[in-house]
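Dear colleagues,

As part of the handover before I leave the project, I'm documenting each prediction I ran so the next person doesn't have to rerun anything. This entry is a single chain, and its sequence is reproduced below.
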Amino acid sequence: MDANVRLRDIPSVDELLRSATVLEAVECFGRPAVTEVLRHVLATTRDEVLKGAEVPPPGAIIATAVAALEENDRSTLRPLFNLTGTVLHTNLGRALLAEAAIDAATAAMREAVALEFDLGSGKRGERDDHLRALICELTGAEDATVVNNNAAAVLLVLNSLAAGREAIVSRGELIEIGGAFRMPDIMLRSGVRLVEVGTTNRTHARDYRDAIGPETGLIMKVHTSNYRIEGFTKEVGARELAGIAHERGLPLVNDLGSGTLADLDRFGLAHEPTVGEAVADGADIVTFSGDKLLGGPQAGFIVGRSAFIEKINCNPMKRALRVDKIRLAALEATLRLYRDPDRLGERLPTMRLLSRPKTDIGDQAARLAPLVERAVKGAFRISVVDCESQIGSGALPLSTVPSVGLALTPHSGGGRTLAELAAAMRRLPMPVIGRIERGSLILDLRCLEDEEGFLANLAHLDPPSEGSSS
């Protein structure tokens, strides 16, 4: 039959819009979207028929259109399984929130809240009041405020306390971290003139003293975050540096970066200076993140002397950098968990995942290995392997946490087959993200808590067949 004749058998948009399935799609996606997709599918169908293809039945055309609508409607901010071995993975959203924080954020989204309203006096209130007393209780600071991330906290502090003046920093602390955050650039944008002291690997107390002059506005100490200098090194500790600053009437700003409120020793992790320790060591201002070791939503905390916090809060930039009611609610709920340190390890996901025993992860790996082997249909060899998980987000960069994972190794095809498998994992309804290492796709199981959901999700895997890349 002539192709032009067969084109007459293709249903029109109006015909398809009368079908029950399409009417249901209209309820879900709206008539304009459904009509547009149907037109696109029909145009593609006509092209294929002109090339000799058979006219598909109306049901097949509708199914293609509905599938396209569902794909277009799917959020790009999709939940996934983080099996990379990095617990606080910046690209995967960093800290998972505690259930208490999720409940508090949900309530704040659903209802009106007393965000800037004092229920006692009936007058205007301050949004910082929801967190101030709690942060001070947990850190020992005189006062506190919060902005939308730690980069904003550093920017605001520098601009408020030393705009147009000099800030002294050790060369070994002029960091660059992910996303091109460079401390010298932040200082430039804040209006502060950077004064570098010491060398990359060694900075002495005399270097700071010699650099102080009439234009000095503050001294800054910066946590080196995602790197360490080892060997022939020297740095001036926070307590000594506070003494040097205060001798000359200058504030010391200590940027902890990740920042933790709890002693990590109790969770079997290497020690990281706590915010409370930084305050006790004499820093006038301490800045740190909310979504890293603290285990909350993205935020930047500023704690320290009341006089300096007051000055920071008077900066017009503060309004541009403030956090909304949803994050404030989640932050408050997260901070309250720290009042009960004995249960923090079970209630705060960050600490729960970091302190998860290797033996438990090993038992899980043994259970999953044969089931994963079945899911990949024999195209890969599955083995249980020891792993070293990372904390991530610049926290304790040289420290790892013993873990266990599954290594998926191709029988043939090498790297290309591994890349195809990783892509197939990313196409799952709930993507699975691992890491390719030493000829295998490694799935580090430290962060896998929903084992049943993982297996149900894996049932949709369409792995590359053996030799598919040859």
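The CA atoms of residues 428 and 461 lie 6 Å apart. The mean pLDDT is 91.

All the best with the project,
I.
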